[in-house]
Amino acid sequence: MNTPSSLQPTTQPIRFYHRGEVVEVSGVQPTRTVLDWLREDAHCTGTKEGCNEGDCGACTVVIGELAGDGAADAIDGLTLQTVNACIQFLPTLDGKALFTVEDLKNQQTHKACGGTDKASCDSHSHSYSHAKSKTIPLHPLQQAMVECHASQCGFCTPGFAMSLWSVYEQHQAAGSRPSRQQLADELSGNLCRCTGYRPILDAGQRMFDLPAARLDAAPVVHALQGLRETQTASLSYAATAAETKDRFYSPRTLDELAALRDAKPAARVLAGSTDVGLWVNKQFRDLGEIIYIGNVDELKAVETRGDQLYIGAGASLESAWKALATRAPSLTDVWLRFASRPIRNAGTMGGNVANGSPIGDSPPVLMALDAQIELRRGERVRSMPLSAFYIDYMKNHLEPGEFVQGLSLPLSALSAPGLHLRAYKISKRFDCDISALCAGMAVELDGDKVRAVRLAFGGMAATVKRAANAEAALVGQRWDQQAVKNAQAALAQDFKPMSDMRASAAYRLKVAQNLLQRLWLETRVDGPLSAEQSSVWSSMPHDVLPSAEASAI
User: Fold this and answer.
1) What mean pLDDT value characterizes the chain?
2) How far is the C-alpha of 550 from the C-alpha of 544, rounded, in Å?
3) Residue 37 carries which DSSP code?
4) 45-90 pLDDT per residue, tens
5) What is the Cα–Cα distance from 409 to 369, expressed in whole angstroms?
6) 502 and 401 in contact (C-beta within 8 Å)?
7) Which residue stretches of 37-156 are H helix?
């Protein structure tokens, strides 16, 4: 395998589209955040800094990229995704477009309703003087926020505006309107302590009643295409050309990534920066050399390969969870409660697995789905069960120079005859909280007998792992209350959980045992509880999987 050209000790500027033009940035550290650049260098102070760790949403911006062929979420040739600017490193913008609350001003000058008298203008909810000038003073989402009294202190408002703008563009392009619950899901990453969410959701619905003001995507697409055409090599960026220690590499092909990783086994692999970004902001860690995988399109695949569902390591959490929940709707709860939409847009399922946190929400579900993890070093690719990947706390079987290439799971694990699949997340808050306990459970029944079972838990040990003794207590047994009691007792042999700020050891063990009982109540042969009887989630109209989108996955 050839040594990638990006290893040459040079530096290239970071180039991206912002405020109507291509911007080139040089001389800043690779870990400078998009938020700091916006506020301190570009003097675009509409984007706010709140928590500086991706929780509050005050720094929400929208990233635009050229849409791939057949992209279901394309908007006039672009994809638009909300992300948290406070944890995104500036070099990750290379070749992309950055939209902030200041950009809404560029969409204010549009033809209004064309009315020639006050009555016709009043029917379109703007004044006759505005109609005569052919301008609308505020973007519809801004006007709706004003009309619905959806802002008080105003600090969080720019972040809400950008989340709402993303929703607005998506639905305007599709000719649809979001439900109130869909708006709530989209705004789950934006925190408001003043007005509460009722008037903000009112504004989200109201903005579709006002005269439309759409993004003119053509100049953005043209600029991004120009950037792509002039990219002679993968990005190798440093504050100075002579810098070798703190350098940011962004390979564009899988082979180049493999060669780069093999040549630099000590470099930090960066995906969505939803965890690594906090290492810099909160722990002030020096990351050294960084290999960013976000521009390797081959790693973003989420597709069916034979009898397997394949999820590339660079696929976003949003696209990966959507693919799983499309095939197994019982996973919708965990999908929408996995952090916020901006975090799911930026973070990757491969990164969540590679991170190895014992409280990560993806590994328990993937283990219950009998997933395999695919590892690559150079040209060698090997696979192993995900359940065997973790060795100890934050330790795994990755070799020097090796990286996670993807995940695969049998489609039968999502829809086999007699299969019952559940995922349960227990946390202090319902939305946007770290799990005290997360469980992935799959039980296959043959009549009233347990043919196979996979029970995986996070938050119960130094690693996410399967409950071997509890599984053994169930396989081959009648699926009844006694079998559940035996499995509950066996859980105490499988796990010796720890006490921490999120939960005590006794609480965790008891909840894990109770979740086994809940699984049985929902799946027992005689009189299983319906979703309405066992979960508040069923009463919330989460119409998040339109049939057209589901069929495209």
Assistant:
1) 90
2) 10
3) I
4) 999 999 999 999 999 999 999 998 667 778 999 999 999 999 999 9
5) 6
6) no
7) 118-122, 128-133, 140-147
CB 361 within 8 A of CB 438: yes
63-78 burial code (b ≥16 CB/10 A, e <16): bbbbbeeeebbbbebb
Gap between the Cα atoms of 530 and 546, Å rounded? 23
Half-sphere exposure of residue 108: CA atoms within 13 angstroms, side-chain side: 13
* Virtual torsion, Cα 392, 394, 399, 402, nearest 10 deg: 140
Report yes or no: 24 and 10 within 8 Å, Cβ to Cβ.
Answer: no
How far, in Å, CA of 527 to CA of 7, rounded?
63
Q: To which residue do tokens 């119409």 refer? A: 543
Q: Is the dihedral of CA 36, 42, 47, 48 positive or negative?
A: positive
Question: DSSP 3-state assignment of 334?
Answer: helix
pLDDT of 108: 57
Instruction: Check pLDDT > 60 for residue 343.
Output: yes
Q: Which two tokens stand for residue 248?
A: 């940011």
- DSSP SS3 for 423: strand
Q: In Å, how far are 169, 429, 549, 553 from 174, measured between CA atoms?
A: 9, 33, 12, 17
pLDDT value for 553: 37
Q: What is the rounded radius of gyration, in angstroms, for the C-alpha atoms of the chain?
A: 25
Tens-place pLDDT, residues 276-328: 999 999 999 999 999 999 999 999 999 999 999 999 999 999 999 999 999 99
Q: Report the pLDDT value the prediction gives residue 66, as an integer from 0 to 100.
A: 95
The amino acid occupying position 9 is: P
**Token pair 């040459």 in the structure block, residue:** 8
Q: Pseudo-torsion of CA 321, 326, 328, 334, nearest 10°?
A: 30
Residue 52 backbone zone (phi > 0: left; psi -120 to 50: alpha; other: beta): left
